[in-house]
Design a protein that fits this description.
heterotrimer, A mainly alpha, B mainly alpha, C alpha/beta, B: mainly alpha, two-stranded antiparallel sheet, 11 helices, 2 strands, C: 6-stranded mixed sheet, 4-stranded antiparallel sheet, 10 strands, globular
Chain lengths: 308, 283, 238
């Protein structure tokens, strides 16, 4: 399968391209692919589009760095803890929001994100607007390294785990039940699907995965602050990756990330230097063009080739 | 406090004007126009340059901006929205996001990120009303926004054409069966909604800074207004816009300005908790 | 004890009384048909039994469990399945996956659920369309899919809402055979039906509703001769 080839290719990659710049692009692409895949559980399979997923990323990241800075807890524990905290937040936020349909749900998630942003800016224990920094260290125990290479392997491992997790979930009972709820919730319930429970399940699992990656993001980038973590732009980027890749498919988000992230980074390097913003301009044009020509996502390329 | 309340009211009218345009497009063509804020930005730049280069006052350039934006809206519909009419809804939304980004970046490149504002216009100065001082441009903009909204309401709710709009919003298939040209209606709605934003944007330049990302400031609040008012309800969008303006102003007055935006979102979530379809939502 | 016992069920919507004091029982192995003119309250009764609405008063018991007012998924888990008058398939999923959703209720593992689904599809004659997208089936196919999905939940009682509506005579006869086979495998049937042919061929007993009340409960041959029933359908002789 494509996935197997991709895994092998990614495993060889850092040896073939030792330049940290390329590795960084791949790490970012892996992260967005995973975030898209996690988002997809709620947005693609369950069909509830969330524009506020960055809130789980931020929660995970803050949890990890707070534990590290204030309790000297290693990220080996802190990152999973970030996932658990994000899942807990999802439990709380999910109850009132999952009742809402389509557009209202989307707006509510934006509202939650915005409120979280303001709360974090005003929470001095968490560093307020400046956020928290990870200490500079080169320690396996602290998962902080001077070189960027170990982070590549962490991202790689996490990405494989995320892919496997989403694949397993979608192929099992939850995947069927989510798609049924998406298709027709009342009909699904008449077949015994406990809709409320499964909606919450999708939300919580998606949040947990996103939170774990939030923890990774925090130690990878080295700091976390409200503007970068609880950012609507980041949320939209996640949605973009999933939708343009092919919403409601397992492979879609990874494809979307594989195209968009190198594209964005490449353009930024090629044209962003002048500071004129041509890179973002072309990025916007690219989004519009991909939407127009591949309305069902990049994944349709495979079908088209097969049909032709 | 009265002053805070009145400021909030007039700000609210501006939010309401932006929201109503968005609600029109959203409600009738079922597209969330992420580029709406950037349409506003374009209108502001049109007015700015007309003033700076041609000494045309914002009040006069408002109709010009309206026409310009109507054209933009039409092009957006014809080139992007209509070709995507069979695509999943999400893609259309993302396409509008891309469009917005493109517009923003074009403005960034063409006009630089500088914050600009207009010096003295016909509307500058302040008014004293019963002991409170209000900026003249804010009042004028608010009043024109109100007038425009009233015109829109009359158009949509009292004319034959408006009934056609409502029919399309309610049931597209049925509407086309009775002979309504849905495609034309869609284009007209996009033009009308964009024109509304055009007028608002032009007038805004009399007291608000003009810069490429200015749309972001307004569009999010407009979205909240449309959702809080309930999809499919223009009066809902209008009232919510005003509510948002008032809440924002009073929060800044009673508590800290830092919490202004947060309180709007909290109120929004509370409204949805008790009324999952917004205040007057039909679907 | 009866499989299904409806006692004095009433349902009002504001001022409108849709069902008034409806009582009947269904034993295991029965085939009961519910008929009545339009607006008689059949669908409302259906929805109250299946859990999509809660009755204003009265009780619905499935064996010894009170199910009135409980959630549809709980009722399905207890062994009551229903089909919809207007088919509500999961259009984007395949026919097989649609049925699998039903089968997953009692077959945890998707592989086993799909095996069971193939068996059910065979029983309703849709086996060869298993991989088609549910949204692409025609009306007759959709109705069979509805049936298959409900069957996949291994119900003791199957509620069918106008399952024969919109079918041509050939399809109708085929459907009757399928229903007979399902019944032979131990499923009790309660059907709401307009197509009298199906009622006459299948039902052991017929319940007639008019204006929300039961006006007759007899064997099919007797029901068509009952003056109250004739009056309900055709109106009083002037």
């Amino acid at each position: 399968m494509i996935a197997a080839i991709a895994v092998v290719a990614l495993a060889i990659f850092p040896f073939a391209f030792p330049d940290p710049f390329y590795q960084q692009i791949v790490v970012t692409a892996l992260m967005y692919g995973a975030l898209g895949a996690a988002w997809n559980l709620v947005g693609g399979f369950l069909g509830r589009v969330s524009f506020g997923h960055a809130v789980f990323l931020g929660v995970g990241g803050y949890a990890t760095l707070l534990l590290l800075r204030h309790a000297n807890v290693t990220p080996w524990i802190g990152i999973p803890a970030g996932g658990i905290v994000a899942a807990a937040i999802a439990l709380v936020v999910g109850r009132p929001t999952l009742r809402l349909t389509g557009h209202y749900f989307a707006m509510a998630t934006i509202a939650v994100l915005a409120v979280a942003h303001v709360l974090m800016v005003n929470w001095s224990f968490a560093g307020g607007a400046t956020g928290i920094e990870a200490p500079i260290a080169d320690s396996f125990r602290l998962l902080l390294f001077r070189s960027r290479v170990p982070y590549y392997w962490i991202a790689f491992a996490l990405a494989v785990a995320t892919f496997a997790a989403t694949l397993a979930l979608v192929r099992a009972k939850p995947g069927y039940y989510w798609r049924a709820i998406n298709g027709d919730e009342a009909a699904a319930r008449a077949l015994g699907v406990p809709a409320e429970r499964y909606k919450m399940l999708a939300f919580v699992l998606s949040a947990a995965l996103t939170g774990i990656w939030g923890g990774f993001y925090a130690i990878y980038v080295g700091f976390i602050d409200p503007d970068s973590a609880f950012s609507l732009t980041l949320s939209i980027q996640i949605v973009l990756v999933a939708i343009l890749g092919g919403v409601g498919t397992i492979v879609g988000p990874w494809l979307g990330a594989a195209l968009l992230i190198p594209l964005a980074e490449g353009m930024r390097v090629a044209m962003g230097g002048s500071g004129k913003g041509f890179d973002l301009l072309l990025y916007g044009v690219a989004i519009v063009l991909v939407s127009l020509f591949l309305p069902r996502g990049l994944i349709t390329l495979r079908w088209r080739r097969a049909a032709a | 406090m009265l002053e805070a309340l009145s400021t909030g009211l007039f700000n609210g009218l501006v939010y309401a004007a932006v929201a109503v345009g968005l609600a029109l497009i959203w409600g009738i063509t079922d597209v969330i126009n992420f580029a709406h804020g950037d349409f506003l930005m374009l209108a502001m730049y049109v007015a700015y340059w007309l003033f700076t280069l041609g000494h045309v006052d914002p009040t006069l350039s408002a109709p010009i901006a309206a026409c310009a934006l109507a054209l933009v809206g039409f092009l957006a519909y014809a080139l992007i929205i209509r070709p995507l009419s069979r695509a999943p809804a999400m893609i259309v939304i993302l396409a509008t996001f891309g469009l917005g980004l493109v517009l923003r970046q074009l403005a960034f490149i063409a006009f630089s990120p500088d914050y600009r504002n207009l010096p003295d216009t016909w509307l500058s100065g302040s008014i004293r009303l019963g002991g409170i001082s209000l900026g003249r441009p804010q009042v004028a903009t608010g009043l024109v926004a109100l007038a425009m909204i009233i015109v829109l309401f009359v158009l949509v709710y009292r004319t034959r054409w408006g009934h056609a709009l409502q029919a399309v919003a309610e049931d597209r298939q049925a509407a086309s069966l009775v002979g309504i040209a849905c495609d034309r209606v869609n284009a007209q709605v996009w033009m009308l909604g964009s024109a509304a934003v055009g007028v608002t944007g032009a007038l805004l330049t009399s007291f608000f800074y003009v810069f490429p990302s200015v749309g972001a400031v307004f569009v999010l609040l407009a979205f909240v207004a449309v959702a809080m008012g309930g999809f499919g309800s223009l009066p809902g969008a209008f009232l919510s816009g005003i509510l948002i303006g008032v809440v924002e102003s009073l929060t800044g007055y009673w508590f800290e300005p830092a919490y202004k935006t947060a309180s709007i979102f909290v109120i929004f979530l509370l409204v949805l908790w008790y009324r999952p379809r917004g205040l007057f939502g039909r679907w | 004890m009866p499989l299904l016992e409806v006692a004095k069920l009433s349902k009002r919507f504001g001022g409108l009384v849709a069902n008034r004091n409806v009582s009947f029982s269904v034993d295991e192995g029965d085939i009961v048909a519910i008929i009545g003119p339009n607006g008689a309250g059949k669908s409302t009764l259906f929805n109250c039994i299946a859990g999509h609405d809660a009755p204003t008063s009265g009780s619905v018991r499935l064996r010894d469990a009170e199910i009135a007012g409980r959630a549809p998924e709980a009722i399905a888990a207890l062994g009551l399945a229903r089909t919809w008058q207007i088919p509500r398939s999961f259009g984007a999923m395949s026919v097989l996956d649609n049925v699998a959703v039903g089968a997953l209720l009692h077959h945890r593992d998707p592989t086993r659920a799909k095996d069971e689904s193939r068996r059910v599809l065979e029983a309703v004659g849709l086996r060869d369309r298993a991989m088609a997208r549910a949204g692409e089936l025609n009306v007759a196919g959709q109705k069979r899919l509805e049936l298959a999905r409900a069957l996949a939940t291994s119900p003791a009682l199957l509620l069918l809402d106008e399952v024969a509506g919109g079918l041509n005579p050939t399809e109708t006869i085929a459907l009757v055979e399928i229903l007979r086979a399902i019944h032979a495998r131990g499923v009790t049937l309660v059907i709401v039906e307009h197509v009298l042919e199906v009622v006459m061929r299948l039902a052991h007993r017929v319940l007639v509703l008019d204006f929300g009340q039961v006006i007759a409960a007899k064997a099919p041959a007797e029901v068509v001769r009952d003056p109250a029933v004739i009056e309900a359908y055709l109106g009083r002789r002037p």
